[in-house]
Design goal:
With about 230 residues, this protein is of the alpha+beta class. About 50% of the residues lie in helices and about 5% in strands. It has a four-stranded mixed sheet with strand order 2-1-3-4, covered by helices on one side. The longest helix is centred in the middle third of the chain and has 22 residues, at about 130-150. It is globular.
């Protein structure tokens, strides 16, 4: 039988999942009370696929029974995070202005390639790892230009307001840097073409919503190191 809270939003999560981290940051930023149910991705409970998410992926939200939409399910990290932003507009996770919202969505779309690159570094052929890492850095250079164009002062994509653009990317940058460290690849903090990204990442990582929800390095190493391609 599915585990859920009747009074609070139920957040189905996995500690080291970057997509879950997105949703967790959104919930914390918007101050939405929730109960977390940890789903073991190595041994998913049968009820999760049957009752919560047919795709068997995390994160997912189950809305509280007491609300107008009691028991409804929301899946996929971007959809879940934007639901939170719409539920709590005072959080400013999404701007009110239509053009600014479009810019946030474009930045999110542009940043999605980081996921491809950290997976290629992790699971691709060993002889291609350095090239795949450099492709990831090239994506960061493009994002750096978008950040500079939007707000050169920062510290966040929109400037002073932390938004969906920030919470979507920071967990992915964490993984790119972590996986790069397995092979002694690291970002050059003195590289002016990614300087805005470097300062942005420091600002994101200093937020309480990030610090309260991020997995430890030890937890992430335990999760990702066994996935390294040996071919």
């Amino acid at each position: 039988m599915a585990q859920f809270s009747r009074e609070l939003l139920t957040f189905y999560s996995y500690r080291t999942c970057p997509f879950c981290h997105r949703a967790a940051i959104a919930l914390k930023e918007a101050k939405v009370p929730y109960e977390k149910v940890e789903i073991n991705l190595k041994q998913r409970p049968e009820w999760y696929k049957r009752d919560i998410n047919p795709s068997n992926k995390v994160p997912a939200f189950r809305l509280p029974e007491s609300g107008r939409n009691g028991g409804e399910i929301i899946v996929e990290s971007l959809i879940a995070a934007e639901y939170v932003a719409d539920l709590k507009p005072e959080s400013k996770l999404m701007p009110v202005d239509a053009l600014e919202r479009a810019k946030v969505r474009f930045f999110i779309e542009s940043s999605s390639r980081i996921v491809t690159q950290f997976n290629q570094v992790l699971k691709g052929k060993p002889e291609n790892r350095r090239a795949e890492w450099e492709k990831g850095v090239d994506v960061l250079r493009e994002l750096n230009m978008l950040m500079e164009k939007q707000s050169s002062a920062g510290p966040y994509f929109l400037g002073k307001d932390f938004s969906m653009a920030d919470l979507v990317l920071i967990p992915m940058l964490d993984r790119l840097e972590l996986i790069g460290s397995f092979f002694d690849f690291k970002l050059d903090s003195s590289d002016p073409t990614i300087s805005r990204v470097i300062e942005w990442s420091k600002a994101c990582r200093s937020r309480e919503s990030y610090k309260e929800t991020v997995a430890t390095r030890e937890e992430m190493v335990e999760h990702y190191e066994p996935l390294i391609s040996k071919e």
